């Protein structure tokens, strides 16, 4: 038995939550992975995992062993990385998950420069607005907006975005243009953005001179994907609240009109997030550094009106 390989295999099962995901991420047959873990258990004389037909759970002994060996694995990988970084180029597959409108309007237009700079990195983009479990879904990092509540993840702030409220000229002509947020309750049709996790509609948020207001009214249409949400607004289905970078083109050509601009809510934070209990490979390190650098540069150029990015680009939350 190769003990180091077996430890790495066991750690991946713990992180992935089952043998199938772990085997896929390690590119090995499920049976080979299972045999490797069994040999490790036999060598140690303890059961590390409890297996059923539906799930795998870590025993108390397995959890203690994972925590101790994870530190050793990280130290070994750090040593390898430090020795190889100077003479090797970042390479390999990088899996990044990003929301729909952020992918379309922010990340993808920037990617040609990244791919030219790092030709040996292959990039898989998962584009959706649904929540992602970085470990079990085998994702290297996610780019997401909003407050963070998971202390087991490392988050680096890449900037803030502006939320605006808008509708088509035809809708405003037929239904009137509200002058105050409370007027949205008076028969206006709101197209709400709905959480893909719990199905709840996000309220329309407004702020002026420190006064914060949330509008929650029954909606006829809810959409749980950002590009489709914008499309619903463009179709004249009602008033939407979306990011200015997403609506920028429609605002320029007049197909959408911003309303209640004096009540724009506080800037919305965006982060790149990755696990803290997993070694950060060189390809992920350079991607994060490039991401922060690229967003910072764009804040000095044409993106400044749509997204405001911080000057301290290495902030860690």
TrEMBL record:
CDD domains associated with the record: PBP2_CrgA_like_3
Record-linked PROSITE patterns: HTH_LYSR
SUPFAM superfamilies the record matches: Periplasmic binding protein-like II, Winged helix' DNA-binding domain
Assigned keywords, A-Z: DNA-binding, Transcription, Transcription regulation
Sequence ranges assigned to domain HTH lysR-type in this UniProt record: 1-59
Transcription in keyword set: yes
InterPro entries: LysR-type_TF_proteobact-type, LysR_HTH_N, LysR_subst-bd, WH-like_DNA-bd_sf, WH_DNA-bd_sf
UniProt family annotation: Belongs to the LysR transcriptional regulatory family.
Record's protein name: LysR family transcriptional regulator
Species for this entry: Rahnella victoriana
């Amino acid at each position: 038995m190769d003990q180091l390989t077996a430890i790495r295999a066991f750690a991946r099962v713990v992180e992935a939550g089952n043998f199938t995901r772990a085997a896929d991420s390690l590119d090995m047959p499920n049976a080979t992975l299972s045999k490797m873990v069994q040999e490790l258990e036999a060598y140690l004389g303890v059961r590390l995992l409890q297996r059923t037909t539906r799930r795998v759970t870590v025993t108390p002994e397995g959890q203690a062993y994972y925590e101790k060996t994870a530190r050793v694995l990280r130290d070994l990988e750090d040593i390898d990385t430090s020795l190889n970084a100077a003479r090797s180029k970042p390479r390999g597959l990088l899996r990044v998950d990003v929301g729909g409108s952020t992918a379309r309007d922010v990340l993808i237009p920037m990617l040609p420069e990244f791919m030219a700079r790092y030709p040996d990195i292959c990039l898989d983009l998962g584009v959706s607005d649904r929540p992602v479990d970085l470990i079990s879904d085998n994702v290297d990092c996610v780019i997401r907006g909003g407050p963070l509540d998971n202390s087991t993840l490392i988050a680096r702030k890449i900037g803030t975005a502006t939320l605006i409220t808008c509708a088509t000229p035809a809708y405003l002509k037929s239904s009137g243009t509200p002058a105050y947020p409370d007027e949205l309750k008076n028969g206006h049709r709101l197209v709400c953005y709905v959480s893909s996790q719990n199905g709840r509609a996000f309220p329309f948020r407004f702020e002026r001179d420190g006064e914060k207001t949330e509008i929650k009214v029954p909606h006829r249409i809810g959409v749980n994907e950002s590009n489709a949400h914008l499309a619903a607004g463009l179709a004249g289905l009602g008033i939407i609240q979306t990011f200015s970078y997403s609506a920028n083109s429609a605002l320029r050509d007049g197909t959408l009109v911003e309303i209640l601009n004096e009540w724009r809510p506080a800037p919305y934070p965006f982060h790149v997030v990755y696990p803290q209990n997993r070694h950060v490979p060189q390809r992920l390190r350079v991607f994060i550094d490039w991401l922060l650098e690229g967003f910072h540069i764009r804040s000095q150029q044409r993106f400044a009106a749509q997204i405001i990015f911080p000057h301290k680009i290495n902030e860690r939350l």
